[in-house]
Amino acid sequence: MHISSTMDLPIHRLSYLEESSEFEHEEGMTATSFGGHPSLEDRKDSYQIHKNMKIHCGFAQGIKPGSRSGFDIQEADWDDMKSCTGVVVASAIFGNYDRLKQPVNVSKESSKRVCFFMFVDEETHQHLDTYEIEHGIWRVVIVRNLAYEDARRNGKIPKLLLHRLFPNAKFSLWIDGKLKLVVDPYQVLERFLWRRNVNIALSRHYRRFDVFVEAEANKAARKYDNATIDAQIAFYQSEGLVPYNRKKSLFPSDVPEGCVIIREHTPVTNLFMCLWFNEVDRFTSRDQLSFAAVRDKLIGKIPLRLSMFLDCERRNFVVQEYHRDILEQRSISLMHSAVRSTDPTFLTSKRHRRSSNRQKIGSESIAAAM
């Protein structure tokens, strides 16, 4: 049985800063109203560890998810989220980017005791299958008036701030909307947290280990504009970020895969997630670029017991599907192929073209022989 180590933590209480709705945005500020516009001095102070800490951690316009918070949900949904006191499995689909995938192999015990929450925006909700919503294991929550224009950045709110959304949960398993959970959540917690005696676990990137290499890959794939990525990496360099060196690092990688996060909710892990989110709010939405910068600033100051397991281990408990647009393109392509294979007009014209080509080749051969 797992025994929480929260009594040994140096942070006894973590609370969150709010901001007046009349705040005047100064020129050069990059953080947002949802994040609370933390200054660089605020950022520096947030890494100074105290027993009682008050930091920026999203929802700066309101004390909880709800009206005018940047993550507006129904009061009934919020009440149910607060009532989740054990394990929560959460995911999100914004911008109709993925299809809803129901977890499988969930035990009867887990289906009763574990909370399963799927956050969607209105656009996504319009495309969901009604049967899936009514009979699936996910509790689907519609989020309105989202904080950012970018759907992927909005997805970072539940991904990194589950402790704000589920203030009474003890453990959480986050899975990206592109993934399908195929193993019971208690088995995942047992294997990756409790057995290894860590309080947060996520998979490392299967190919890249260096933030500088990851930044170049993001630029090549046009994940974000080059200038903003370069500015973020230059800022981290000025703070001491160096290329990854396995011989000198405490960790097997500086780049997480990030699509799965397994953690215990403690003041320590909550602090880590808040500060990670603040980087996403200030810089690019590519959380892989900011992970190591936050981790390395906190290691040695707090008992953050972090595990970065192999990505092949992740693939044992979640399976990945293509995003909706790719699946739809493939479906259209297969449909066209099926039509061509059964259309007699297409088949006749195809045979006619082949016959004409053979006749043409034969005529050319005879002419050449003469």
Automatic annotation (TrEMBL):
Chain intervals for the UniProt region annotation (Disordered): 346-370
TM stretches of this protein: none
Domain TOD1/MUCI70 glycosyltransferase-like: from-to ranges: 14-323
Domain of life: Eukaryota
Protein name per its UniProtKB record: TOD1/MUCI70 glycosyltransferase-like domain-containing protein
Species the sequence originates in: Ceratopteris richardii (Triangle waterfern)
